[in-house]
Protein 1
Amino acid sequence: MKKTTTGSVMLTALSSHRTHCYAWVTEKNEAPFFCKECLKEVILRKGSVRIHHFAHKSPVTCQYGLGETDVHHKAKKGIFEALKTNPNCSYCELEKKINNAIPDVYAVIKKVPVAIEIQRSNITVQDVCDRTLAHHKNGLSVIWVIPSIDQLKIFREDNQDVSRVPKWLECLHALAYGRVYVWSGNGEAIIPIHFDRFTRYVPSKEFYNSYGEYVEVGGYDRTLKDRKIVLPAPELVSIGTDFCSLSHLA
Ligand SMILES: [Zn+2]
């Protein structure tokens, strides 16, 4: 996977009139812009490689937007734009500050307020816990979305798709009752993925030990704890349309 630089960047900022500016429909001559979190001035970047975004000026002291890569922004913008047109979704906003937390996408889906969090490149178990708890305290359900299947670092072993599931991913899997959601690359469609035990057959062996006793070992499946089988669901699910079936997860 191509390595993308991660700074302290965001898709939206405040104008000097405190209105909401989306980077992709804002022009540089509308400056200045301000970070929603620290209220310091941020710069609009409209390059040709990454999705247009705002960035903190250095030295960066604000944590907001850290670890947001281009793939993170693509997922966030894709989900936001799709939900805005979904009739089940009565309200949708990007990077909306709710008390002390800023979910990537905030949506009211079938009257349920939901925080959609896109996994950041620098995510830790502590981040997952802190952000989930902060949203729950604000009365929001939470759906975590992994922006790209590349994040699972899948490899083939014993003719199966396998991943060395890191702790943060295990944590998301547990929070969603045994699955994680990966952005499909298109709109609000996500791929549910279950991680299953990876086992390897230990062949049976029979022999006599040094005491002359007959010993039989093996003949069972051993679980390898450092890897899991990656099992994607056969069908994609839509955040806005299938939310009832997702909501028990949060
Ligand atoms: Zn800031």
Protein 2
Amino acid sequence: MILQPEEAKVSVYDRGFLYGDSVFETIRTYAGEPFALDEHLARLERSAGRVAIPLPLPRADFALEIRRAIRAARNPESYVRAMITRGSGPMGLDTGLAEKALRVVLVEPLQALPATMYRDGVAVTTFKTRRAADEVAQGAKVSNYLTSMMALKEARAAGAHEALILDGSGDVLEGTTSNVFALTQGVLVTPPEEAGILVGITRAHVLEVAGELGIPVRVERLPLETLRSATEVFITSTLREIVPVVRVDGQEIGARVPGRTTRAIHAAFRQKVGLGAEPLPWEKAGD
Ligand SMILES: Cc1ncc(COP(=O)(O)O)c(C=O)c1O
């Protein structure tokens, strides 16, 4: 059933609402086609599996529904949030109280990010937590983002674009809604899944692109000191692609401007998503 957003309703007994008992994916289109849809749905299924939410329909059927929703929205490019909640039922933590899992696909016009973010790079802050995520749901994209929201609130108050989450030992894990990479002594480093990150789809594509460009890559723990002394730092996410980071907690990184390796990886990524003939995000006028 496709509805206008103001017509769509979810029960107040929905467990996503009551307990954050839901998983989701953020997807975007390029030329109207959802990018890496299979990878997103594989991750959604994995997330749902980690918290024992049974998928209410086969993955391929959900893909068809998502494509249909995108077509119906008729946006030039779309941002898609695909959600699965455990469903609704009497209150209580017992998962058996839920009826059938509920799926919701939100489609909105994709908003372009300011060109300045790509041209000049962004500032980030750091936010220390004892543990990155709820251990049970580690690696799953569950809907409770409260730690991330508090971290981002602090970042925004400091005039920064993103907050990087640190674990108990002070190692950098990821951004609130992004993964992080640092170029250190010519090697591109990004934290591993075991550190407690969400394994980003963009991260996977960036790792692939870096390999193709012959950039040495290491997936390993990233101490804050390594990040601070890196020559280049960038974050990755579906909606932002690759954003250069030029300041961490007020301290400048490398040459204080987006680096050559970051640019090369982003240009190669744009080729990969079919935008090779378009101006690069930092070449666009405005903002
Ligand atoms: C915690 C977290 N890490 C990383 C990412 C980046 O993942 P992707 O590249 O799949 O968008 C996200 C995306 O929202 C996220 O929420």
